[in-house]
Amino acid sequence: MENDGNQKKKKFKVIPPPYRIKMVERIEMTTKEIREKAMEKASYNTFLLPADLVYIDLLTDSGTTAMSSNQWSRMMLGDEAYAGSKSFDRLDGAVKEIYGYKYVVPTHQGRAAEHLMSRILIKPGDYVPNNMYFTTRRAHQEMAGATWIDVSIDQAHEPTSNHQFKGDIDLKKLKTLIDEVGAEKIPYMSIEANINMGGGQPFSMRNLKALKILCDKHQIPVMLDGTRLVENAYFIQQREMGYKVKSIKKIVKEICSYTNGATVSGKKDALVNIGGFLACNDEDLFTEVKSLVVVFEGLHTYGGLAGRDLEAMACGIHEMVDDNHIAARVNQIEYLGNKLLEANVPIVKPIGGHGIFLDAKRFLPHIPQKYYPAQALTAALYIVSGVRGMERGIVSAGRDPETREERKPKLELVRLAVPRRAYTNTHMDVVAEGIIELHNIRKKISGLKMTFEPKQLRFFQAQFKPLKNELIQK
Ligand code: PM9
To answer: Fewest C-beta atoms under 10 Å: which of 13, 191, 399, 473?
Structure first.
């Protein structure tokens, strides 16, 4: 049997991580008074908090991974030659072996790859269908002149739906789009693995295969956002018929075989603090990417990264497909999610692959969406517990580029994303306690008004004030 990790899992109630800890970093709990002042100074936006005033940092799982001793030692072997470094060869080899694409161009992170892909493939007036949106991907599609279209299944927008593959594409919605605008106006089909904004939810292999057949028929390339591909592969292994006995490595390769290329932020699955890449099978696209990357990132063999970063990512790509690693990673999220479900805290179901998502509409039903309930909940959670999360609702959704009206997503969420290999389940216990405490005083939380709104990706730097004089009434 090839899938050894999956068998080991069944022996334990929790899945123990396949590592021990060699180096630690001190973190400090602050007082509620300190946090109240810090939150006010940060204008009720957790992105504007100093990190040393955060106790457990679940702002993001991006670039916050603990690297392995192998990755750190590979960094010392980084070949810093400007052109044609050995470290590029190792990254190139790792992507080809694990993902199976023919061509690879490194970039400094995921959005840089999205930028190159959008600039090259999109013409003004085009339409790009997606399974829900991710902030940076949609921003680049729209900046290149495309209209973003959501072709995700309806259940993806329902926090209480237990659908096992909320990342699936609604093929009827896609067919309607093709009929309405014509395939020549659709430069690519954009499909994200384990959709982030929907709660870390996977697509199924069955749906992906059907999507590929439909797109091939209309000569529309399928471009994957492979940022959280391994987590998606894990859910396929656990939930889809016929995949229980397959290794994560095989499932990852199979997914990629039904796509024409991918943009990847290495800061998630690939276990590095910086890095990304664009990979594809089409030689013409590769030639164009190589030509454009030198304008924005650097030569096509380093793409804005140091040789040591390429080494760490090459090593991380091999480590990420270890069945034991990914089982323990997702199990830690389930551990936290189940504690919250037991305490009747409203979270997105099923429990996702990279974090748990509080449903602010059910948590704070007294705050209308126009007063930013998820933003208020994120700020209040920090004050009560020292835990930092991120708004994933109306603030993150931003404005329609044409009408400039606020987009009002059905999902109004607070994301608590768990960094890989960084925290223990004891930390998860503390996070759960903080959220449950906050849930008990939820009626005292007030809404927010926005006092400053940046032009792009406003959630990063927007500023707020409580509607009443205090965010949490005494
Ligand atoms: N994701 C995250 O925290 C970091 C930026 S938004 C706070 O979830 C997907 C699915 C992502 C993603 C980043 C990117 C961009 C692309 N696709 O951050 O540029 O989740 O490396 O990747 C973040 P980079």
So the answer is: 13
The Cα–Cα gap between 432 and 332 comes to: 12
Sign of the Cα pseudo-torsion (130, 271, 430, 33, in order): negative
Distance 135 CA to ligand 1 centre (A): 8
Q: What is the mean pLDDT of each run of 10 residues along the chain (474 residues)?
A: 50 86 96 98 98 98 98 98 97 98 98 98 98 97 98 98 98 98 98 98 98 98 98 98 98 98 98 98 98 98 98 98 98 98 98 98 98 98 98 98 96 98 98 98 98 97 96 94
82 is catalytic: yes
Domains, the chain, ordered by start: 7-61+323-466 (3.90.1150.10), 69-320 (3.40.640.10)
- CA 155, CA 198: separation in Å to the nearest integer? 10
Q: Name the helix (H) or strand (E) containing 356.
A: strand 355-359
Active site (annotated) includes residue 133: no
Mutate to test the pocket of ligand 1, among 136, 357, 391, 457 (most ligand atoms within 8 A of CB): 136
Ligand 1: centre distance to CA 62 (Å): 7
Residue ID of nearest Cα to ligand 1 atom 5: 62
The answer to pTM > 0.85 is: yes
Tell how far the Cα of 368 is from the centroid of ligand 1, in angstroms. Answer: 28
How many angstroms separate the CA atoms of 237 and 219, rounded? 29
Residue 165 annotated among the catalytic residues of the structure: no
